[in-house]
Predict the structure.
Amino acid sequence: MSCEVAPRRADRVGPGFFHLGIAGLILCGLEATYGLSGFPRFWYQHQPIWWLLSLVSLAAGFTAMSRSVAPQRLMWRPSVPGKRFRECIVYTAPGCTLCDETLALISRYRRWLPDPVEVSIETDPRLVAQFRKTVPVVALDGKVRFRGALCETLLRRLIEGSPVVDT
């Protein structure tokens, strides 16, 4: 299983084709309206093909963007609503961008997780010895669940598989 940090190549193909189609339609329209010069001969000899390629590229880009993974991330919900844990502690280090990303990701799931309490490991020498090389560390109800980069897929599985707590 893979936990993606960067967008997948497939998530970039749709916008590429979409913008290519728009650019093609603009060029075809400008050439038809103003008679632009300076294009290669094959451009003028095959005008209907360029219109068709632009429309196909636009449609393919739109279709690829509508099937992208990104909209599915926003619509995810567990099968049972409610908070899953009583406390969430995130052990961080100063200047750690991965820690900031982890806190932002946890805050996106605030409907199902408690508000995260950020604890800097520099406040306690024991925490420095314990978590020095593994920050951020996410502990839910006193149990360490994640070390290092927080995988959104695993976080969802943990939320789905955990019982709702009484408030």
Notes: The radius of gyration is 25 Å. The beta strands are 88-92, 116-120, 137-140, 143-147.
